[in-house]
Write a structure and sequence with these properties.
The structure holds 2 protein chains of 2 kinds.
Chain A lengths: L4 H6 L1 H4 L5 H9 L2 E5 L5 H11 L3 E5 L24 H12 L4 E5 L8 H5 L4 E4 L4 H14 L3 E7 L2 E7 L7 H5 L11 H4 L3 H20 L8 E6 L4 E6 L35
Parallel strand pairs in A: 1-2, 1-4, 2-3, 4-5
Antiparallel strand pairs in A: 5-6, 6-7, 7-8
Helix pairs in contact in A: 4-5, 4-10
Chain B lengths: L1 E4 L2 E4 L6 H7 L8 E5 L2 E2 L15 E6 L9
Classes of the chains: A alpha/beta, B mainly beta.
């Protein structure tokens, strides 16, 4: 796919980068990235990937835009309140860059549907807020062999790691299984700095671009942690775990399962 | 003895177990923390029986959700 003059101009600031070039830009334009969750992490990731000219961006989300989202989910604007998040996100992506094809998946990921969605893409970004979804994404990416970026945020802390399934440390290597419902606080319970989501979501987009271009060092076998109060980034080297139930030596998980865990406390209609 | 806990030099008493270190470091919900000891993820069942040695490198790794939505 040859670049048009307009595309050469639009992407000129990254085409002049030695590690990108015209060939790299063409690669990005023919790449497909899935963003699971059009929320705090998915919003900046989607906007930057769109601007960078990722040819196809898939957005998975079942929810509608809520007033509490706008403090950090910068892909959604005040005028989008009540709109489906996938529709709101698609509109902003198209407004930034009409080169991008947007595929919307208005659904909650589950053991039944995730494989069909994930396998259409070259790279996935986990922008979900709950542990069953995070484990489900980890497992589905393993079975479909789709690399992905894991991330989590809470209060002033963030973490991320890139997983090349079967080759590098996976989410289960570290955490094993989802915690019991309600034990680990969520952003709606404990709060989160909006810009923290921007920092971590942007780092996830960076990893996606590096993976697609085959440049630099990915955050594989490494958990990057960040604290916004101390401004400290730390890379924690994490080796693959031979006891991992998914990719370890004794295979315990051999097919995709729904990761059951009841919904955790939500301030708006808290029953706990 | 000296440990390196989450990248920081930390002095602790001899013979401390991983479980005791979690308490000493005021880690909330120690059952929910993953622990890497000298580059290996430790089984949670082994926290109580694993005794730390001088110069061990310990990382506490926390579950972190966040991201999408408020639901």
């Amino acid at each position: 796919m040859a670049l048009t003059d307009k595309q050469v101009e639009r992407y000129s600031r990254q085409i002049i980068l030695e590690q990108v070039g015209g060939a790299g830009q063409e690669k990005l334009l023919s790449s497909k990235v899935l963003i699971i969750g059009a929320g705090g992490l998915g919003a900046p990731a989607a906007l930057y990937l769109a601007a960078a000219g990722i040819g196809t961006i898939g957005i998975v989300d079942y929810d509608r835009v809520d007033l509490t989202n706008l403090q950090r989910q910068i892909i959604h604007h005040t005028g989008d309140l009540g709109t489906e998040k996938v529709i709101s996100a698609r509109a902003k992506i198209r407004a930034i860059n009409p080169d991008v094809t947007v595929r919307t998946h208005q659904t909650k990921v589950s053991g039944e549907n995730i494989s069909e969605i994930i396998k259409q893409y070259d790279f996935a970004i986990d922008g979900t807020d709950n542990f069953p979804a995070k484990f489900l994404i980890n497992d589905a990416c393993y079975f479909e062999n789709v690399p992905f970026s894991h991330a989590g945020i809470l209060r002033f802390d963030g973490q991320l790691m890139t997983v090349l399934p079967g080759k590098t440390t996976c989410y289960r290597c570290i955490f094993g299984a989802p915690p019991p419902a309600g034990v680990v606080p969520s952003c709606s319970q404990a709060g989160v700095l909006g810009v923290l989501a921007g920092v971590i979501g942007s780092l996830q987009a960076t990893e996606a671009i590096k993976y697609l271009l085959g440049i630099g060092d990915l955050l594989t076998n490494t958990l990057l942690t960040y604290n916004a109060l101390t401004m400290q980034f730390r890379k924690v080297r994490l080796n693959r775990n031979p006891d991992c139930p998914l990719c370890g030596e004794n295979l315990q998980i051999t097919e995709l399962q729904n990761q059951e865990q009841p919904v955790v406390c939500n301030l708006k209609d808290c029953k706990c | 003895m000296k440990l390196i806990v989450n990248g920081k030099d930390t002095s602790v008493s001899e013979g401390l177990t991983v479980s005791q270190l979690l308490v000493e470091q005021n880690v909330k919900m120690p059952d929910m923390v993953s622990v890497e000891l000298n580059g290996k993820i430790l089984r949670r069942a082994d926290f109580e029986t694993t005794t730390l040695r001088d110069n061990d490198r310990v990382e506490f790794l926390y579950f972190m959700g966040g991201g999408r939505g408020a639901n």
